Amino acid sequence: MAKFDLNDSSVVVIVGSGAGGGTLGNELAQKGVKVVILEAGPRIENHDFVNDEWESFSQLAWTDARTTSGTWRVAKDFSGLPAWIVKAVGGSTTHWAGASLRFDEHEFRVKSTYGNLPGANLLDWPVTLAEMEPWYAKAENKMGVTRTNGIPGLPGNNNFKVLEAGAKKLGYKTVHTGNMAINSQPRDGRGACQQIGFCFQGCKSGAKWSTLYTEIPKGEATGNLEVRPSSMAVKIEHDTGGKVTGVVYADESGAMQRQKARIVAVAGNSIESPRLLLNSASTMFPDGLGNSSGQVGRNYMRHMTGSVYAVFEKSVHMYRGTTMAGIIRDEAANNPKRGFVGGYEMETLSIGLPFMAAFLNPGAWGRPFTAALDGYPRMAGMWLVGEDMPQETNRITLDPRVKDKFGQPVASVHFDDHPNDLAMRAHAYKQGAAVYDAVGATVTYPTPPYPSTHNLGTNRMSEKPRDGVVNKFGQSHDVKNLFVSDGSQFTSGAACNPTLTIVALAIRQADYIAGAMQKKEI
Amino acid sequence: MREVDRRSKHSRRVFLKGAATAVPVVAVATSVAVSIEDAWADDSSTLSPATMKTLLKVARDIYPHDVLGDSYYITAIKPWDGKAAKDASVKSLISDGITRLDQNARDRHKVPYVEVPWEADRVVLLKEIEGSDFFQKVRGDLIVSLYNQKEVWPRFGYEGSSAEHGGYINRGFADIDWLPKA
């Protein structure tokens, strides 16, 4: 395995090892580029994952201090936990459920499609679906997405069968077990899904794609990739010419180190990535690195989410099997007649009893609450995930008071739902309940959003430097050798789960970076 | 469908061993349910037995599950005694909270909280203090201390860890048999 010198200024330093950073690291390493990945969390291999929700949360979740504000309910119920993401090698690809969907054509052109929506800071992406299609294809092949590349769909579990039966009764047409980056048959040295459940707790069998046991070891095998776990980036440095020169980070012992770099790529998820840029402010970049637009940290999106759980007369045991292998896509299109722009997906979801108690209706108590939990074995569940509107005021800032153990201001997350988000959620709750009512639900529970798993948009792509932070390749408008490689570069969120698009963008970015390096442009 | 055996495997013996190790042998030997049920509270070191018993009632009233015996709730609330021993502010949080609740109960019903006969009336008393630090801390703690007991899970038809059993691929992940034909 490679080990690079701290003073080796020829390396690309990537901050983060998840869908964006882990993929970019491997892709560059495959092309012969030397890469150091700084990962804030420890390296925990998949056989050490645990099928226990709270224990796994302690093992994997990012629980460092953050603050929250805004009218979203998460700020009230989970004020210190705005996001449920991972601090470990592999990032949130350890925790993700595997849903791998392409954006629709219009979802790259939201300003043109939706027009002027008061309060929404809409912008078209500087890239189109046609441009992205070959990269989506590469990502699907890399990740082994079901229903692509001749890979069969996963078998439906009990929770899916309830969803499917209700959807068909309701007249929905596009209902199946999803496009999942979970092996339905052995592939790429990994086995088929054993229907363990606990997809969110890290896949013990390795059937689910995660950079932890795909991209990262493949990159390491080239001799060009070094991953440094428990290494928390605190500042990106630059020279007087305005080019970045390296990253200061706290190593495993807490000691500060400085890794020199030819290029720096930030992939720490949409809360930490803007935080790092803002914490890297200097005389030359007083508002934060790469922030001449003032858009760093703004336009924070987290998807319109919510869940519907339903109880039936007879058992379902929704927790058995793949968590999210089930989807209804009929509401994903843009159909403003419903009273909102954009669309949403309905995807099967189950959580275990401990998390059901914590998330079904946070703060609730008494008989109405316990009656719901008493129905747990007879419960089916779905997640509602839809496009939320980017708003300038939904934003990651540096908390003026709270600092981390290295003395750096922590991220403060402000979020208010846009009226369009609220209208979409109300519609989705109604339709979700209707699906289950169609097959005899005795009661349905419209469950509020969990701490955010899809964090997007805080370093967005734009054609013009004044509208966003990075260009169509994730390259900073202000600093040529600075890149953003995670979901924070999303110009808008689309209805679907973001990981496939993050991976496709990372593959494309690696191609661009390697080309630019070869041409000595950076 | 493969149903989950929801009968209690949480025997009194296990409970006594696990949660009340200091119960005198004589109390066990009597095998009189009432005395055993009472013994757990006498085991507390910092909070009074009366406080612990009221806390048990409060826990049951916050998250009432009639299929669960007291032992699960006792397991959930017992750690408060240890926390109170370590931290005086926790001790006063719990003691003062219970004192206030008892006072409100006496004002309204002429009896302490545990003796208010109907759950609905006790819930009114809890509603009055819902915003208090005492209530919120006790409730928030219960969400984990009650529902994260592995012994509780089968009572709710939840099977817990599955990887060591080979997942559900051969254990009923798709065995639902009552849905209408699609």
TrEMBL record, chain A:
Family per similarity comment: Belongs to the GMC oxidoreductase family.
Pfam families linked: GMC_oxred_C, GMC_oxred_N
Entry keyword Nucleotide-binding: no
Residues in Glucose-methanol-choline oxidoreductase C-terminal domain copies: 390-506
Protein name: Choline dehydrogenase
Keyword Oxidoreductase: yes
InterPro entries per record: FAD/NAD-bd_sf, GMC_OxRdtase_N, GMC_OxRtase_C
Domain Glucose-methanol-choline oxidoreductase N-terminal intervals: 87-304
UniProtKB/TrEMBL annotation, chain B:
InterPro entries per record: TAT_signal
Protein name: Tat (Twin-arginine translocation) pathway signal sequence
Species of provenance: Bradyrhizobium shewense
